[in-house]
Every structure is written in C-alpha cells, then in structure tokens.
Design brief:
The protein has 267 residues and is of the alpha+beta class. The protein has 3 helices and 11 strands, in the order αβββββββββββαα. It has helices spanning 2-24, 198-206, 232-254; strands at residues 49-50, 56-62, 67-73, 77-86, 94-101, 107-108, 110-112, 116-119, 125-132, 149-159, 168-179. The strands form 2 sheets. Strands 1, 3, 5, 6, 8 and 10 form a 6-stranded mixed β-sheet that branches. A 5-stranded antiparallel β-sheet has the order 2-11-4-9-7, with no helix packed on it. Strand 5 (94-101) and strand 6 (107-108) form a beta hairpin. It is elongated.
Length: 267
C-alpha cells in the first residue's frame, strides 16, 4: 500500500508540473518569425501592433480571436491591405473578414477588393484584400473621408462551427500604398495627423514639466506632409509659363508688320 501511495503522489506531481506547459502551448496571437518584421498581433485598438508600409507582419492565433494591427497613411496615398490566413488541415466552412478604421476609429469602406471571403471545408488558406479610398489632406467635419494618421486593421472570423472554434491558425498581413499625386490634392490641411496621443503631446509642448505620451511610434518615411506639397504646383507653374508664351505668340501674330517704308504717317 505504501508503494501505491508513493506512486500516486509522483503521478500527481507530474500532472501539476505538466499543466502550465500545456496551458502555454495553447494558440494565441503570438510570434511566428524572427526576421525583424512584427510577429505579434494585438487584441484591441489600444494594443494594435504597429506595421510599416511594405512590411509583412505575421502572427499565430486561434480561430475566433480578434487580431489588430496599425499603420500610418499620409495625404495622397491610397492604402491597400492584404491578409492571408492559413487554416488547419481539417475544418468546416469559415468566413473571414478584414475591417479598416481611421485615426478616429471610423470604419472606412473598401473602394474595391475581397474584404470578406468564405473558405470551403478543408481549404488550406483564404486571402483577403481591401483597397481604401485616397487619403485626403483635409475634409469637412461631417464627412467620412480618409484623413492622414494611424489606420487600424482588424482580422477575424465571422461564422464558425463550434468544432472549429479555438483551432490554431497562422496569419500574414501586408500593407502597401500608391501615391495618387496632385489629382487627389485638396485645398487645406490638418494641423496635426490623426494619431494616438497627439493631443497629449500638444499639451506637453506648452508645459515642459509634464511628460509626453507617445502612443504611435510610426510615421511615413518622409514625415507627415499634411498636403502642403503636390505635383499640382508643377502643373500650375508649367501652365502659367505656357499661357505667357501663348500670349506673346498671339501678340506677334496679330500686330502686323507695321507701316510700309516710304509711306508717310496719316494725319
């Protein structure tokens, strides 16, 4: 009997030691690589993982999790968000969706792209894409136009079977943009981009003793332009030069050759 009690105590201790390891092995929005790009996704707006344009962010998660990333977008850019979800080998039909929100957390409609897709049973992966409208340098307060600042991406599954809930998945997110140039330029500009913590930083500038809260560390490669420059300046200057040349040419054509030689002026 003593040997049985000793063996039971040993098995109980082994089970308690293995329990934390089993809990840690459950899927979560965690790391999936070490190439310098983000390898983790946030679970809310406040914990969204920052991603630079051109980077490919990866994360492991569980089916049913809400995954959040954030990226900067400046005036004149038309961002494109592309997401790939690698699904388990065996699963039922699943519907996945990406949503994009601006710095005011207003949901931005996709200009085109497959924002929502349904993966059939046992499909290995599903790809989603959202092409936003061109970011404007300024807009009316009542409008829903995209404005310069931080944008948030949320990736999640909409319709799942109970058996698939919690299964491990692997995700990839890539954000790029196309510069639309002066065709998208507008008169006016925001005083500050819509990024988290900008109001706190503005207050800290007036009082050096107060700490400065920096909640968004990413910005465009060349800094925030806020629409002060566009190629419309070049086309405007070129149009002015062409108009001046056209005026000179028109004057030379219409003034005539003047009074013929030997003809006295009329009284």
């Amino acid at each position: 009997m003593r040997a049985v009690r000793v063996l039971s105590a040993a098995l109980l201790a082994l089970g308690l030691a293995a329990a934390p390891a089993a809990a840690d092995s459950s899927p979560s929005p965690g790391a999936s690589g070490d190439d310098g790009a983000p390898t983790r996704a946030g679970t809310s707006f406040r914990t969204a993982t920052e991603v630079e344009q051109g980077q490919t962010a990866t994360a492991r998660a569980s089916t049913g999790d809400y995954l959040y990333w954030s990226f900067p977008a400046d005036a004149g850019q038309r961002p494109t968000v592309h997401a790939t979800v690698k699904l388990p080998e065996s699963h039922a039909a699943e519907t996945w969706q990406i949503d994009v929100y601006d710095g005011l957390r207003r949901r931005q409609a996709c200009q085109y792209g497959a924002q929502t897709r349904t993966a059939g049973a046992d499909t290995p992966s599903v790809e989603l894409e959202c092409v936003l409208r061109t970011v404007r340098a300024w807009s009316e307060p009542w409008a829903d136009d995209p404005l310069p600042g931080t944008y948030y991406v949320r990736l999640t599954a909409l319709r799942l079977s109970t058996a698939d809930l919690g299964q491990p998945v692997s995700t990839e997110l890539r954000v790029g943009s196309k510069n639309m140039g002066g065709a998208a330029a507008v008169d006016g500009a925001l005083s500050e981009p819509l990024v988290p913590g900008i109001a706190t930083r503005a207050e800290a500038d007036e009082d050096d003793d107060s700490p400065s809260a920096v909640l968004a560390g990413l910005e465009p490669e060349d800094g925030w332009t806020s629409g002060w420059w566009s190629d419309r300046w070049i086309w405007t200057a070129a149009g002015g030069v062409l108009a001046a040349l056209a005026g000179v040419a028109g004057y030379r054509l219409t003034r005539g050759s003047g009074r013929p030689p030997g003809v006295p002026p009329t009284a």
